[in-house]
Amino acid sequence: MIKDALAEAEDRMKGAITALNNDLTAVRTGRASPALIERLEIQYYGTPTPLQQLASISAPEPRLLTIKPFDPASLKDIERAILASDLGLTPNNDGKIIRLGIPALTEERRKQLTKVVHHRLEDARIAARNIRRSTLDDLREFEKEKMVSEDDLERGETELQKLTDRYVERIAEIGARKEAEIMEI
What we know:
two-stranded antiparallel sheet; 2 domains; four-stranded antiparallel β-sheet
């Protein structure tokens, strides 16, 4: 009973880590990465569609992304969405391919991006703590319904805290790696 609750909590915390990693791939660093724009929403025939479904994205050079739409008619829509996004990139369109030059980050922009990363890390830590609280409520409910003993509840709470601490530490490691990546010149 307690093992099942702890296993479920761990699965949910893994999900929080996965969501954090997906969020952080979209945070711009000095290098060109297709993940930077893959999930950018494009208004394609009135429907918001992720860019990765409309075009092939590649990084032929360290500071260049190329976007080749599957449908040439969507070129203007893609260009418009890039300009409207908060990426701060200007697309160059040659009629078939959009080229995005990734400029070097200024010190000020690096600090802003670091703040964004810290905010997302805090969201992930809050998610882990919410999972812990939810699981703790479940464990206490098991004890209240006499499904587990008080000693088992105590052991379960200790294990849950260790699990939470491990995932919060992993979140901090991910954040430190991303911050170093952003501050790298």
